[in-house]
Structure formats: structure tokens, C-alpha cells
Amino acid sequence: MADYLISMLTFAALYGLMALALNLVWGMAGMIDLGLVGFFALGGYASALLTLRFGVPIPLGLLAAFLFAAACGSVVALVTARLRGDYLAIVTLGFAEVVRIVASNEIWLTNGTDGISGIPGPWRGALPPAEFNLLYLAIVLVVLAAALLLLQNLRHSPLGRVLRAIRDDDQVAAIASKWVILFKVEAFAISAGILGLAGALYGHYTSYLAPDLFVPLLTIYIVLALSAGGTGSNFGALLGAFLIVLFQEGTRFLAAFVPGLPGVQVASLREFVISVALILILRFRPQGILPERLPRVAKP
Q: What is the pLDDT of residues 93-116, one digit of tens each?
């Protein structure tokens, strides 16, 4: 049971990294990014290929995943700089699907739908499985804390204030002599880099990556996590991510309380319970459980 809880906490922390990344571009800059899983996959494959095929140390693989995903995020931001709202969401969703399809077909690079196995993890062979899981949880929590600290400082920095101004009205921000496209690219790059880092951490933890893992449903989970936790709030994003994992895993035990149901109906009941819980949260707390609190400006 302890190993199970540690594993779920690890996945919840990875969800938290993705929710923080989404909060930067959506909650702070107002850009609807549905390509999260695409950058997640790019980072995972980048670190896996470097460490597995070229023997690059894992820390350098994580750094390469961050930089590669950030570079791809900058390109996507430049291409979609003039798009807003639903159009931006559709294009970024298409980008994620392109990444998944390419990973499925480029067998020489990603091994196709069979996936890449045997991805190294830190001290995986030297430690017993229980100790490795505990160590990896500590590593992911340290990375999550560093990302939270970075984004909290960014939130209270001049860049954060400009991003919120762009979110509220980018034309007014442009009139105020702010280079809107540049700030959007910066936000997209940082967000994509964090997503790539999360993907790399996922790959080194599970030691396996395949295109079937990077489906749009994962993006939907992160969007729901941010919406329930509080759009614009970093702590709300973390809370929402942990709640999503709690709902997903807690409902696995429904079969013990509802005997006589076949497996298919239990799975449907799980989805129903999760949906009702999220609907209730959004009904009674439409701003999220921990909504964004704008910093007060001192009166002159």
C-alpha cells in the first residue's frame, strides 16, 4: 500500500508541474493552450533518446528536455501569435496530435507504437524498488517546489504584471509600449519547457514511453485540474492536480462498496463520480477552490 501511495503522489506531482505550466500561459497570459501533451511528449522522448542511446547523464537529459521543449514552444508561439481563443486552442491541439502521429510512425527514432523501454532512472538498479520510488518522489517534489518558486516570483515580477495586462486586453498593453508577441513567446517557452521537463521525469520514472500515452485526455485532465483549483493561481493549480489524481485513484475502490457490478459498469460509475465531483466544485466555486488574488497596489 505504501508503494502505491508513493507512486500516486509522484504522478500527482507530475500533474502539478503540468498544471503550473498551463497556468502560466492560460491563467496569467490568457492563451488557451491545448497542446500540453505534445510538449510533454517532446521532453520525454528527448531525454529518453539522449540517455538511452547516447549515454548522456540523466540531469543533462532533463536539461535538454527542458530546452528542446522550450524551443518548440517558442516556434509554436510565433506561428500562433495572431490567433486567439478557440482558434489558438484548435491549433495547439492539432500540434499535440501531430507530435503523437509522428512518434507513432517514425519507427527509426521512437520505435513506433511499440514504444521505448529500458529508459534509465537514477540509481534504479542499485536501490530496491521501494527505495527507488521514495527517492524519485523526493526528486519530483524538489523539481515541483523549484517550479512553484520560479512561477511565484515571475507572477510578482514586471513580466507577470505584463502578462496579466495582455490577458485582460492585449491591445491596451500594446498601446502601453509593450511588445505583446515577445511576451507571449516568453510565456509559451517557459510553459513548454516545464511540460517537457515533466515528460522527461515521467519517462525516467516509468522507464517506458509510447505514443498511446500522449492522448488529448491527459490535456483535459490538466485543464480540469486548473479550472477546479483556480485559474490564475499557482497554488490552486497544484491543489487541482492533486484532487484530480485523488478522484481518479480513490474511485478505484468503489467496487468494494457496490458489489455485484461488472468491471465495465464500475468503470462507468468511476467516470460518473469524478464528473459529478468536478461539476459540483465548478458550480459552487466557479472561480476555483483557491482563486487568483491580485496583488494590491498601494495608494499614493
A: 999 999 999 999 999 999 999 999
The answer to whether residue 196 sits within a structural domain is: yes
Summarize the confidence of residues 60-78 as an average pLDDT: 96
Alpha carbon separation from 46 to 17, 62, 79, 213 (Å, rounded): 18, 9, 22, 15
Report if residue 84 sits inside a domain. Answer: yes
Q: What residue numbers bound the domain in which 165 lies? A: 2-214
Q: Structure pTM?
A: 0.94
How many domains does one find in the chain? 1
The distance between the two most distant Cα atoms of the chain, rounded to a whole number of Å, is 68
Strand partners, 117: 208
Contact assessment for residue 199 and residue 140, using Cβ atoms and an 8 Å cutoff:
no
In a domain, 251, yes or no: no
- How does pLDDT run across 199-232, given as a tens digit for each residue? 999 999 999 999 999 999 999 999 999 999 999 9
Alpha helices per DSSP H over the chain: 2-22, 36-53, 58-79, 85-105, 107-110, 129-155, 158-168, 170-175, 180-206, 216-229, 234-250, 254-257, 263-284
Q: How many other C-beta atoms are found inside a 10 Å radius of the C-beta of residue 118?
A: 8
| Per-residue confidence (pLDDT) for residue 203, from 0 to 100 | 96
CB 143 within 8 A of CB 59: no
Main-chain dihedrals φ then ψ at residue 117, nearest 5 degrees: -115, 165
* Cα 23 from Cα 86, distance rounded (Å): 17
| 220 found inside a domain | no
Using alpha carbons, select from 293, 280, 281, 189 the residue that is nearest to residue 235.
293
Could you tell me which of 199, 238, 220 has the C-alpha nearest to residue 23?
Answer: 238
